[in-house]
Amino acid sequence: MDDSKDYRTSQIKFIDDTNTNIISIRKESIVRIWDVAIGTHMGEMGSEHFVWTKGISDKQTVGKYVIDTKDNLVCVRERVTLDQGTLNIKIVACFFAPSHIETLQCSGNNIRLECKEGEVLHLQTSFLTA
User: Fold this and answer.
1) For 82, which DSSP code?
2) Is 76 exposed, middle or buried (0-12, 13-18, 19+ CB in 10 A)?
């Protein structure tokens, strides 16, 4: 292996609603497509014509859950309607990121965070798809 190259993945994103296919971008500008369900590398291409777009969001709703961020904190809250019809929100989980959270993306039971200092976190929950 050539030690002068950086083989770390710099970005990753689910590319379909079934959470079975992802794309990853390595620092040396290689875009790879993966089938997560079977762990197979399906192909790759150069990134010279590839544009990575991301929506800026600090709050998303997945079913009865609200996921939101503030600074370096992400909270998952459950919306519960009481007998009287009032809405109650209870905290289900909270996570601290290593730096300020810039982007929040939810897909199925996966939560993806991009932080200001370049960190990318992937959190997996069992309750979002339950």
Assistant:
1) -
2) buried
Give the start-to-end residue ranges of the domains of the chain: 9-46, 59-124
Phi, psi of 126 (to 5 degrees): -95, -20
pTM, full prediction: 0.54
Predicted confidence (pLDDT) per residue in 51-90, tens digit: 454 455 678 887 788 888 999 999 998 888 777 766 778 8
Q: Are 69 and 58 in contact (CB under 8 A)?
A: yes
Question: Which amino acid type is present at position 31?
Answer: V
Say which residue the tokens 């790879």 belong to: 32
Instruction: Give SS3 for 116.
Output: coil
Q: How crowded is residue 79: how many other Cβ atoms within 10 Å of its Cβ?
A: 13
Question: CB neighbours (10 Å) of residue 1?
Answer: 5
Q: In a 3-state reduction of DSSP, which class is residue 53?
A: coil
Lookup result for tokens 């519960």: 80
